[in-house]
What does this fold into?
Amino acid sequence: MTVARVKMLAGNWKMHKLNSEVEAFFAAFVQSLGLSPEQRLAGRLDLLFAVPATILAQAAKTCKPLGISVAAQNVHWEASGAYTGEISLPMLREVGVTATLIGHSERRQYFAETDATVAKKTKACLQDGVLPLVCVGETLAERDGGLVESVISRQMQSILAAVGSGAGLSDLVVAYEPVWAIGTGRTATAAQAQSVHALIRSLVTDAFGASAASALRIVYGGSANPSNIKELLAEKDIDGALVGGASLKPEEFAKMARAALAV
Ligand code: PGA
It folds into this structure.
């Protein structure tokens, strides 16, 4: 059985923007989008923004009436404890946050995130009812060394072990983000991205069967922008995009959302 997957367009603001910019951003975004919240929601497109911790509460308050979800960029797996500098799932839920990025390559590269911590965080999110957007992707050296399949398989194995069974796969999103395409202006071609998305879905099929795998949304990230989004979303295993740079500009991101609605 094939499950219809609702496309997702997720912005990743990284370490950008202040509370004082939030209202104006979303006013401009909604105006550029030119649709009512009902039209956007209608099961056609999930819109989500992963924003810095200091503006989560303000963004969640502004976005709720617009039918837009707000995500954290990282989370700890424990509910509370002596973990200076960390934020927990109950803290996110308290301010209206319903999702979080996990294992973004910048966290793997600069902040010692590992497959093991990614797995713990994914498991905690699934138990807590917060949507995990878990990132995987190879570096340029790994791609050039012919290691795409082994790197993605290794990263996916720890995520799938955390999921435990195929039942929760519609409550998980995997983001394929080739590290060499992030913030570089060098997008993977639609065919390159599709082939890794198909690999990810086949790994999930091996673990839990085709029906469970067809419920999983796999989004692409890495220099996605208004000019390439249509081509990427036309691929059969690409269920949306995780967008850094282009999500900082309301008009650009609205163009991408309109393109996603038209696919
Ligand atoms: P980019 O970032 O769109 O600026 O390449 C994507 C990401 O890191 O999520």
In short: The radius of gyration is 17 Å. The longest strand covers residues 7-12. Residues 190-208 form the longest helix (19 residues). The chain has a mean pLDDT of 94.
